[in-house]
Design a protein that fits this description.
By secondary structure, this protein is mostly helical. It is 78% helix and 0% strand. It holds the Pfam family MurJ.
Amino acid sequence: MSGVGRASVLLGAGTIVSRLTGFLRTVVLVSAIGATTEAGNAFAIANQLPNNIYAIIQAGLLTAVVVPQIVKAARHEDGGSAFVSKLLTLGTVVLLAVTAVAVVIAPLLVQLYAPRFPPDQQALATAFAYWCLPQILFYGLYALFGETLNARRVFGPFTWAPIVNNVVSITGFGVFIWLFGLTGSLEAWTPQKVAVLAGTATLGIVVQAAILFFFWRRTGLHIRPDFRWRGVGLRHIGRLAGWTFLMVIAGQLAGLVQSQILSEVSKEFPGVFVSQNAWLLFMLPYSIIAVSIGTPYFTQLSEHAAAGRHDEVKADIGRSVRTVGLFIVVATAALAAAAIPASRIFTNTTQEAVDAALVLVCFLAGLLPLSMLFIVQRTFYIYNETRVPFFFTLVQCALVVVTALLASWLLPTEYLAAGIALGQSFAGIVQMVLAVILLDRKLGGIGVASWWPSFGRYVIAAIPAGLAGWAVFLLLGGADGWTASDKFLGALGAAIIGIASVIVYVGVLAVLRAPELKPALALAQRFLPGRR
């Protein structure tokens, strides 16, 4: 199997375990604070604040700019050690400063993201935020060191480290339940409860970052603190990162509008916390498939582009898009069919699961476009092009804001989260189409026409696959059956429905003699125990 294939399997396996333990983490968290309670939404806002900063660091700066620069720096006489030393020193200083400022202005941040929370709910969210915001530093260190490991083709630790974070969080949240039980009402919270819950969340991120240091020797880099930040191209990185930084800021502003609108949802209906958990389910196939396959290709694309082998870059784009698409299409169909049991994992009642399932299905409309965008957008980055991604992302952000506002004006409160999710998907579709058109023009053609026969076969196979999964759900009792009666039974039911969908999908592709099926099955088999 190719190096890209082996790396994809390593990342995919780590992501599967990470996501499964992450699901268990969220199950325990929901059991501690509820899915639609005031305390649950308060914690969701507070714990999302450091994640928003991490999104800026990870997607906005490192993946877009730093990985290609580290690949280029590997050609230096010292293998890139001086460049990486300066980069990590600068990054750590910036992270410390940002973290300190964020903690100081915690009340303002909470008010900014949840202006429609009542005063007592804002006070609880602020108390959580004081404990959660130090995560910024450790998320950032995790991103800096993890992306450096990826750029040096040490792929595993960055993917597997979150598992340790999840184990720490599961343990801490379990202790919270043992000590205090379900605590959803605002009046029941004390400083001790806040410290145990939010402190656990931050401790997990600290451990996640620390784990990476044990694998640093594999990079072959010798780093030391270096405050002389001139002379290794940091000004060039700054110019590239400028557009990317603006792009991610635009995304965060769009997310801010969504958060502000969702903060008005009353506790009986899907709000911030339910929306976050639906997004977590949505991101499962994206992380396992798009990121696991796309990340090794991104490093390979960077190397081919740096060597001027542009035809190989185009071939890599086509292979990765078709491979990712085959898996993503069936994942969309299966997860849509299993939306209610899957949503039951993160809710405390069947009705909550039914309401949350609508939010999940609305997000799923954008799964394939987002997965394709992962590859297309990063191809711009390997050519040091960050201005064009900014503009097509700005269009997406504008559509996110417009659709969120329309949802707030036109939809009743109980459907607000679903309306915002559907608007997010629509914006993502438009963004993906623009990105593909612009990349095709930039590279003088990327063979887009050759993608459509493959995607046509995927869709033809996905329709009966999704219907088969839905039929299994109905045969198991539907929303009134056992698959929606309990968290763990929901997980089991979702797995059964998903397996049925996949079997039908593979069968139809086999009947259609899809040429993509054989290599895809070979890749999937690498995940089985005992396979290499």
